[in-house]
Specification:
Distance between the termini: 40 Å
Radius of gyration: 23 Å
Helix content: 25-40%
Number of domains: 2
Number of strands: 27
InterPro entries: GATase_2_dom, Ntn_hydrolases_N, PRTase-like, PRTase_dom, PurF, PurF_N
Pfam families: GATase_7
Oligomer: single chain
Strand content: 25-35%
Number of helices: 16
Largest sheet: 7 strands, antiparallel
Structural class: alpha+beta
Catalytic activity: 5-phospho-beta-D-ribosylamine + L-glutamate + diphosphate = 5-phospho-alpha-D-ribose 1-diphosphate + L-glutamine + H2O
EC number: 2.4.2.14
CATH class of the largest domain: Alpha Beta
CATH superfamily of the largest domain: Aminohydrolase, N-terminal nucleophile (Ntn) domain
GO molecular function, one term: 4 iron, 4 sulfur cluster binding
């Protein structure tokens, strides 16, 4: 699995319109969100009359420098880090998307994936719309511009939301005003806080921490928040009886120090480890994580089981994610470059190896073989998620059913394939106990094969929201605030 995308938006009081403060704050926020996407990044800042942007392929520190960021002047801006789940890896798909139309300027940063993007794009192309990318975000942009020609921004956003099926957390700039939009199921995280006398909207709260800001709250599912230089107002647009938060944000994607939908990710992962220890105990000498995503769960497992926590693997953090070599021998070398066993810590020991998930099983096999070659007498695999049996259509770059090992093999067969002495997956009920929530409030389609929205050829666990359930924005204003 690979990370999704990270979005960021900042608006400061209008007296900052001639400074580059917003641009630099977006730069640091995107640095804090780098784990969500390493493929490309972009920043757009609006100076009151026109937009200025930088986009590029690669990591945040590779795309920007002090001089280029310093030239972005204005009091409102939008940023993005991307890993492609829809659309190829090329500069044309780099976000934020900026569209100029007769009513002004729109910029959109998107985390998520639309199920009906192709149908919407076909419809727009029949109307004569021209696309420069193959990303579903540009589809949202064209739909929004089409509405803005005839309606006010909040009503335009509502009308666009009526057409979209899938996941979307959006940060949108329209003519000097910042908007935060979260789909009615709340698949992807989105929060906002006070930043330097203004407001910031981000995929994760760690970006607010990085900017020394104060987290206010999460954007609610189906909510649109309008930010100006001196305040904000909320409109509840969609209405769903149950949200469907992505469970893998808590298992793997988000940083452990983030707070998502009121839950500290670190605490959830520690609880996952504790539940794993209760469900799958084993006599062992040490508990070791597969770094980095297995660390917190391994700590929880060790604390609950009373088994010593000791790192048996060390990760090389300077190997790029696109490191690809042909041939089996060279792929094994790549694994050793990314991770190495600490021989003295595992030699002669019964090891519990805690990882966040098993997808294809090939990497798990190589890691376990590495630990065995370093002298471990036993290796027991413990997995901080239930078995992944179905693909994700809502924003995770996950394997197909044919590649998902748990979709066609039993636990014993997987155990044999990865060369483990025993294998234990966390149960769905155990995961919900770790999350302290009801499974009806989470998206667990990849674990059950039943999805919260209608996807052709797949099972839908509940009826999708009716279009009539979208409220009139004039009647849905919930709250306001000011800086």
């Amino acid at each position: 699995m690979k990370e999704e995308c990270g979005v960021a938006g900042i608006i400061l009081p209008e007296d900052r319109s001639l400074s580059n403060t917003v641009a630099f704050k977006l730069y640091y926020a995107l640095y804090a969100l780098q784990h969500r996407g390493q493929e490309s990044t972009g920043i757009m800042v609006y100076d009151g009359t026109s937009s200025h942007s930088i986009k590029g392929m690669g990591l945040v520190p590779d795309v920007y420098n002090k001089d280029s960021v310093g030239c972005l002047i204005g009091n409102v801006g939008v940023g993005h880090v991307r890993y492609s789940t829809s659309g190829g890896s090329k500069i044309e798909n780099c976000q934020p998307f900026v569209l100029n139309f007769k009513g002004g300027t729109v910029a959109i940063a998107h985390n998520g994936n639309l199920v009906n993007a192709k149908a919407l794009k076909d419809e727009l192309e029949c109307e004569g719309r021209i696309f420069i990318s193959d990303s579903d975000t540009e589809v949202i942009g064209h739909l929004l511009v089409k509405e803005l020609i005839r309606h006010k921004p909040v009503e335009s956003i509502r009308n666009v939301m009526r057409k979209l099926v899938g996941s979307y957390s959006l940060v949108i700039h329209i003519n000097g005003t910042l908007y935060a939009v979260r789909d009615p199921f709340g698949f992807k995280p989105l929060c906002f806080g006070e930043v330097d006398g203004g407001y910031g909207v981000f995929s994760e709260s760690v970006a607010i921490d990085t900017l020394n800001g104060t987290l206010i709250r999460d954007v609610q599912p189906g909510e649109v928040i309008v930010f100006t230089g001196d305040g904000f107002e909320s409109h509840q647009i969609g209405c769903e009886p149950h949200p469907a938060h992505c469970v893998f944000e808590f298992i793997y994607f988000a940083r452990p120090d983030s707070v998502i939908d009121g839950k500290l990710v670190y605490k959830v992962r520690e609880n996952i480890g504790r539940e794993l220890a209760r469900e799958h105990p084993v006599d062992a000498d040490i508990v070791s994580p597969v770094p980095d995503s297995g660390i917190t769960s391994a700590i929880g497992y060790a604390r609950e089981s009373g088994t010593k926590y000791l790192e048996g693997l060390m990760k090389n953090r300077y190997i790029g994610r696109t490191f690809i070599l042909p041939g089996q021998e060279l792929r094994d070398t790549a694994v050793r470059l990314k991770m190495n066993a600490i021989h003295d810590n595992v030699k002669g020991k019964r090891v519990v190896l805690v990882d966040d998930s098993i997808v294809r099983g090939t990497t798990s096999r190589r890691i376990i073989d590495m630990v065995r070659r370093s002298g471990a007498s036993e290796v027991h695999a413990r997995v901080g998620s239930p078995a992944i049996i179905a693909p994700c259509y809502l924003g995770i770059d996950m394997a197909t059913r044919q590649e998902l090992i748990a979709s066609y093999k039993t636990i014993k067969e997987v155990e044999s394939l990865i060369n483990a002495d025993s294998l234990g997956y966390l149960s769905i009920d155990g995961l919900m106990r770790a999350l302290e929530c009801d499974k009806n409030d989470m998206c667990i389609g990849c674990l059950t094969g039943e999805y919260p929205v209608e996807i052709p050829g797949e099972n839908c666990r509940k009826k999708q929201m009716r279009l009539d359930d979208f409220n009139n924005p004039e009647d849905s204003r919930m709250a306001s605030g000011n800086s």
